[in-house]
């Protein structure tokens, strides 16, 4: 498994590159890896997906919280 820092970096990169379709991109990666029986790859991308959700739930830097 890759490090926590790498998982967060991957999630951030996916969000930056794919924006609104990031979930579809991640789902396709997971389907492809599952079809090839790459269990470690599936676990890694599921971990990235969880961090992607967390990034979206985090207020943007510089935003005002009231």
> What is the mean predicted local confidence, pLDDT?
92
Question: Could you state the order of secondary-structure elements as H and E?
Answer: HHH
Helix content: over 70%
| Biggest β-sheet description | none
Cα end-to-end separation: 38 Å
Low confidence ranges: none
Count of individual beta strands: 0
What structural class do you assign from the helix and strand content?
A: mainly alpha
Number of domains: 1
Radius of gyration: 13 Å
Shape: globular
Q: What share of the residues does DSSP label as strand, in percent?
A: under 5%
Counting DSSP H or I runs of 4 or more residues, the number of helices is 3
Overview of this protein structure:
- The protein is built from three helices and no strands.
- It has 66 residues and is an all-alpha fold.
- The chain has one domain.
- The relative contact order is 0.18.
- The model has no long low-confidence stretch (mean pLDDT 92).
What secondary-structure arrangement, pairings included, does this model have?
Layout: H1 4-18, H2 22-35, H3 39-57
Helix pairs in contact: 1-3, 2-3
Could you name the key traits of this structure?
66 residues, mainly alpha, 73% helix, globular
Describe this structure in a few short sentences:
With 66 residues, the chain is mainly α. It is built from 3 helices and no strands. The mean pLDDT is 92.
